[in-house]
Amino acid sequence: MFEWSETDEMVRAAIREFIGKEIRPHVDELEHGDLPPYELLRKLFAAFGIDALASDTLKKILDKQRAREESGEQSSAKERGSTSLLGAGGQESLGVILCSELCGVSMGMLAAMGVSMGLGAATILARGTLAQKERWLPELVTMEKVAAWALTEPDSGSDAFGGMKSTVRRDGDGYVLNGQKTFITNGPYADTTVVYAKLDEGDGTPQRDRKVLLFVLDKGMDGFVQSKPMRKMGLHSSPTGELFFDNVKLGRDRLLGETEEHKGGDGRDSAKQGFVTERVGVAAMALGVINECQRLCVEYAKQRELWGKPIADFQLIQLKLAKMEVARINVQNMVFNTIERARAGKMPTLAEASAIKWYSSETATEVAMDAVQLFGGNGYMSEYRVEQLARDAKSLMIYAGSNEVQITQTAKGLLGQ
Amino acid sequence: MPNIVVLVKQVPDTYSERKLAESDHTLDRDSADAVLDEINERAVEEALLLKEAQGGEVTVVSVGPDRATDAIRKALSMGADKAVHVSDEALRGSDVLQTAKVLAAAVGKVEGYDLVIAGNEASDGQAGAVPAILAELLGVPQLTHARKVELDGTTLKVERESEEGITRLEASLPAVVSVGEKINEPRYPSFKGIMAAKKKPVETLTVADLGIDAGEVGLGNAWTSVLEAAPKPPRTAGQRVTDEGDGGSKVAEYLVAQKLI
């Protein structure tokens, strides 16, 4: 694939129209954190029938599982792995376009949606029992309710599992959870939170080697505190918070899969399954930033006059625009390549996904910083939006695995380690 | 269950710079992005609301060059069922009378139509005459500038809004309705609708297919012609009156000099 299909372009035009009418007028409120992004996301879902589409897909998945369980059949690994609620069936590009277009105007909105659907709901779908899926998913896939996905802790970022201190102890048939999480997207507002914690069996196993279990918590549970949004450098439209667990009592029905010996491996494996999708997703986000920077810069360079002519006539400005074009071609090709591979059922390896994430996030940040420079004094002012794109883009170099980790994993793939 | 026809037109985006060709004053279609006229989105929306409430079918009819297909697809992606696209080089430069004639023939191709819904005027030509001429040619009632449409069986009730006020109109089907800005808020096409639009039937016709002689249409045979076209003069700075006790009379003098009072 070297270009978007006609259908893709119609989708893109419709999304751009929605963004222009419904999102751009609210960017300031979103950026100041006065307006949580959820109502606008629900409006977006309703406008394009994404909620109905996701509900249909979920219903089909659950019906199939129910029929299978009733007939006593075992689920196949392939079915267990099917976690895509959006963009299945040859339409992988729709989700990519939505992601990319949103990132050009409000990356935080995409982050809020992506975490709720792609991490929160997707983890319950991949690991939960039928009863757990029926309990939490119907309202999550429509964004009627919002999910958070809590892995990171104050002392464990890239070393998420090794350094994890949040602990559960068995308590009768259930568990008691203690600990804290940080940098949790949707944390302040989430209705449903998927929490990773280590099992303390009281047998002296070192903290680092303990088994990781996953639980689902609801807002307002005793001992579960969701902080106010934290102040950040960018991604302002995505509320980020801390979570505190103080002797939170959890029934066995909140342990994902209702077993400590999950077929899909322990919590470490659960998180890793999402790494490839999350990392190639960063390329789609980066593409949105690059496209928007390029669009704004070309327009500005033609209009802005200095020494009696448009700055587009100056070669140092042309260099910036040309570099943006190289970035656009490269990142777009990575996105197209990933779509093709998803269609062929041949996803990139972890090393390849890491390389794509590293390159596209760094490139988007460079492009956005160049855009600020091209706009000069205006670029440093919020009104012209490029400084927001630069702050948002920088987050791509840190989250979904810091770029330092991506580089190491790319090299490990090459070295066969 | 009404069988509804919606007239749609592809126009240059009002947000871009629109131009007429210097040689013959026809629309320079390359100068601006082409979109489905917003008033037509409202016409489609009104048809879809009626269909959702009462059943029936919605057919989109458009007269325009090949690339007008994009505007037709947009209407189909919103939820219309099928389309008729009249595309013929001979139509280039046709005026409202010729266009209405072609539309009348195209609407005639939609078997057993009950209701034709159009926008009250296109954002490019702004003649605002096509719906009325079309109704006349079809020999059916015209209910124009609607801000509210109600359909009860074969009785159509419309609130017509004009500068003079609101007029309540009633007619029996078949009829032609033209809608104004206030009629509704058009929906966005859903992802499902966009994917489905590709498979919906679009019948492409030439003027010959409609039984119209090519000698009756097009710029050379138009009943009206554009003699001159000029861009709006740029806004000039206003005239400031400093009030030194005689501000009122100075303003009055200015208005008299401009023949405004």
Radius of gyration of chain A: 22 Å
Q: How would you classify the helix and strand content of chain A by structural class? A: alpha+beta
What is the multimeric organization of the chains shown?
A: heterodimer
> SS-based structural class of chain B?
alpha/beta
CATH secondary-structure class of the largest domain in chain A = Mainly Alpha
- Tell me which protein chains meet in the greatest interface and how many residues each side has: A-B, 15 and 14 residues
* Helix and strand sequence of chain A: HHHHHHHHEEEEEEEHHEEHHHHH
Discrete helix count of chain B: 6
Using the 3D structure, state the CATH architecture of chain B. 3-Layer(aba) Sandwich
Q: Number of domains in the coordinates of chain B?
A: 1
The averaged pLDDT of chain A comes out at 92
As residue ranges, the low-confidence spans of chain B are: none
Number of domains in the coordinates of chain A?
A: 3
Helix content percent band of chain A? 40-55%
Cofactor (chain B): FAD
InterPro entries (chain B): ETF_a/b_N, ETF_b, ETF_beta_N, Rossmann-like_a/b/a_fold
GO molecular function (chain B): electron transfer activity
Domain Electron transfer flavoprotein alpha/beta-subunit N-terminal (chain B): 24-214
Features:
heterodimer, A: 417 residues, alpha+beta, Butyryl-Coa Dehydrogenase, subunit A, domain 1, Butyryl-CoA Dehydrogenase, subunit A, domain 2, Butyryl-CoA Dehydrogenase, subunit A, domain 3, 3 domains, 7-stranded mixed β-sheet, two-stranded antiparallel ribbon, globular, B: alpha/beta, Rossmann fold, 11 strands, ETF_a/b_N (chain B)
Explained architecture:
The complex is a heterodimer of chains A (417) and B (261). Chain A has 417 residues and is an alpha+beta fold. Helices cover 53% and strands 13% of the residues of chain A. In chain A, helix 7 (107-127) runs antiparallel to helix 8 (130-140). The two termini of chain A are 32 Å apart. Chain B has 261 residues and is α/β, with parallel strands linked by helices. Chain B is globular. The mean pLDDT of chain B is 90. Helix content of chain B is 26%, strand content 25%. In chain B, strand 8 (155-162) and strand 9 form a beta hairpin.
